[in-house]
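[Automated response] Your request has been received and processed.

Submitted sequence:
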Amino acid sequence: MSQSSLLVISLSPIHRDARVLRQLSVVAEHGRVTTVGYGPRPEGADEHIEVPEHLATLPQTPAGVAKLGLRRLAAAELAAPAVQWVLKALEGRRFDAVVANEARILALADRVADGAPIWADMHEWAPEERTHILSWRLLVAPLMDHLCRTYLPRCAAVTTVGDRIGELYLSRYGVEARTMRNSSPLRDLPVGEVSEDRVRLVHSGAAVAGRNLELTIDVVSSLPERFSLDLYLVPANDGGKYMRSLTERAPAGGRIRFLDPVPPMQLPDTLNRYDLGVFWLPPVHTNGHLTLPNKYFDYVQARLGIAVGPSPEMADLTRRHELGVVSEDFAPETIAASLRDVTAEDLRTWKRNADRAAPELSFEADAQVGHEILRELLAR
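Generated structure:
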């Protein structure tokens, strides 16, 4: 019996895209996988079609921008240079199922699938991906809405990162989205020791201006001396400008340290020596409000307590599993107040609770959603 032929498209550097790599580990169990994306062949792919890095994923040519500005959205669906290149690269190819990552490639996936079933992994809420940027809000958001409205109802399966974002897809586009969280693989790590007179905070992620890491630095700066913070940050594509602004903001004395980023698979081991994983993201847009990021699940697998703001998806899990503290709002003084009286016994309790919650909040649990989808698609 011949293997199923599966296509995974993600116009991202797949070899370092944590969500797509986890997705790929599931897809690879169901057949022969061809990936399309930037950068070298990712682990799990049998064949990789590498998109030239200089090609944009949106219609950023003069003709493309004119189509967006004139709201000729149907004409703009396939106008992005990277999309045009992929169409040519896949010409004449046929697949048993197609996995499409994010809204911008829905029309492309529909075209290359040629009737084969499509699993659309939307990640977050596509119509408001970057609405904090004026040009994106005016030109690109209408295209994302058009792509979702036109193509999501044609897809055999739709997934997203959290239940509330799934509810948005249902209410606006009438499609049932299943939740496949940005969870980390289950790790067998010890519940670390706690000091009686120190609280070791940690944050991992990207040094991107929209993440408002200034807030984290200001909060820790205002806390008593027993609190320290280590940041494992991947620099943004800005020549290190934002990272420099953060290091300059941190007070002297070494209580806040900036350490080199760690590969995703090694991160829980590195984080395991800390007490509390922290993430406070004021809700500047819908995706920020409903965020449930990789780092949350890395903290759980590292057996850490967790400190977050009232972001509903993170707050729900933190309260349900009794993993840590949820501040009432995002004011620096409110966040600091939520931490100031934390005791060593609190930390021990939260770490033990993280250990108990680790299997349920692991990728092994979320991977079952992907396996179920692929079985359904290939049964067609």
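Summary generated for your ticket: Residues 134-151 form the longest helix (18 residues). The chain is about 40% helix and 20% strand.
If you did not submit this request, please reply to this message.
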